[in-house]
Design a protein that fits this description.
Blueprint (H helix, E strand, L loop, with lengths): L9 H7 L5 H8 L7 E5 L7 H4 L5 E6 L2 H5 L7 E5 L12 E7 L7 H11 E12 L3 E2 L2 H14 L8 H5 L19 E6 L1 H8 L3 H10 L3 H13 L7 E12 L1
Parallel strand pairs: 1-2, 1-4, 2-3, 4-5
Antiparallel strand pairs: 5-8, 6-8, 7-8
C-alpha cells in the first residue's frame, strides 16, 4: 500500500504539473562519479526522469501508481516500472544517483532510506526536493492564492504537506548532507487557465471536493479571479521555489 493522492487524476496531473529546471540536473551531474544508472523514485509521469535521461546510460523510473505510469512521457533510455519506493527491486550497490521529485514526504522514511542505501553505489548521490507554494508577478493574485491556500483548503491537505511548508527542513534525511546547494526555482509563463489546471491537481483541492461534493477552485477562486486578472489570456510569471536536500 502507498499514499495515493494522484492516481484518480493522472491525465490531469500529466498535463498540468510543471517540469524541473535544467540547471538543477546540471548541478546534480557535477556531484556524481558515474553515469551508468539513475533511479527516479515516485516518478509520477516522468517529469524528472526525462530530464535525467541525457546524462545517464539508463534511468529506471518507478512509481506505485499504474495510472500515473500510463501517462508517463516515453524516452528511449528511461525504463518505467511499477514499484513502491520501499521495494524497488533494483540490484545492490547499482545506482549512481537517486532522485525523488516532490514525493519523499509521502514515503515510509525508514523503509525507503534503507532501500536507498541498499541500492546506492558507495560513491552514490541522493537528492530529494519539492516545490513550495508559487507566486506570480501579480501581487493581487498572490494575495488571493494565499487566502485560498491557508484558509479555504488548508484543513484538507494531508498531514505530510507540513514538510513542504517547512521547506523540507524537518524531513528525515539520514545521509551526509551537502550544505552548499545552490537555490533553484521553477519558472513558467502561465495564463490563468494553466494556473487553474495546476490548482485542480492539488491533493487539498481533491480532498475538499470529496468532503463538500463541490470544487473549491470553481466555487471560491474563479468568481474572484477577474478582479485580480483582467486579461485571462495574458501569461503571468509563475515562480515555484525548490527546497532540496542532497547527500551521500
Amino acid at each position: 500500500m502507498f499514499k495515493d493522492h494522484f492516481s484518480g487524476h493522472a491525465h490531469q496531473y500529466s498535463s498540468a504539473r510543471p517540469t524541473y529546471p535544467d540547471s538543477l540536473f546540471e548541478y546534480l551531474i557535477t556531484l556524481v562519479k558515474g553515469r551508468d544508472l539513475a533511479w527516479d523514485c515516485a516518478t509520477g509521469n516522468g517529469q524528472a526522469a526525462v530530464k535525467l535521461a541525457p546524462y545517464f546510460k539508463t534511468v529506471i523510473a518507478t512509481d506505485a501508481s499504474e495510472t500515473q505510469l500510463a501517462e508517463a512521457t516515453p524516452c528511449a533510455n528511461v525504463q518505467y516500472r511499477m514499484a513502491t519506493a520501499e521495494t524497488s527491486d533494483l540490484d545492490n550497490a547499482s545506482v549512481d544517483l537517486i532522485t525523488v521529485a516532490t514525493a519523499v514526504h509521502w514515503f515510509n522514511f525508514d523503509k525507503f532510506y534503507q532501500e536507498a542505501k541498499r541500492v546506492m553505489k558507495p560513491n552514490g548521490i541522493i537528492a530529494v526536493w519539492c516545490y513550495s507554494l508559487f507566486y506570480t508577478d501579480n501581487l493581487a493574485f498572490n494575495k488571493l492564492i494565499h487566502i485560498f491556500y491557508t484558509d479555504i483548503v488548508s484543513q484538507y491537505w494531508p498531514p505530510e504537506r507540513k514538510y513542504i511548508d517547512e521547506a523540507y527542513k524537518t524531513i528525515p534525511f539520514p545521509f551526509t548532507e551537502i550544505t552548499s546547494v545552490p537555490e533553484f526555482s521553477i519558472v513558467n509563463h502561465w495564463n490563468s487557465k494553466q494556473i487553474i489546471n495546476y490548482l485542480q491537481t492539488w491533493s487539498g483541492v481533491k480532498a475538499y471536493e470529496v468532503h463538500y461534493k463541490e470544487n473549491p477552485v470553481e466555487k471560491w477562486l474563479l468568481p474572484r479571479l477577474a478582479d485580480c486578472i483582467p486579461d485571462m489570456e495574458k501569461p503571468l510569471i509563475v515562480t515555484m521555489p525548490l527546497a532540496i536536500k542532497v547527500g551521500y
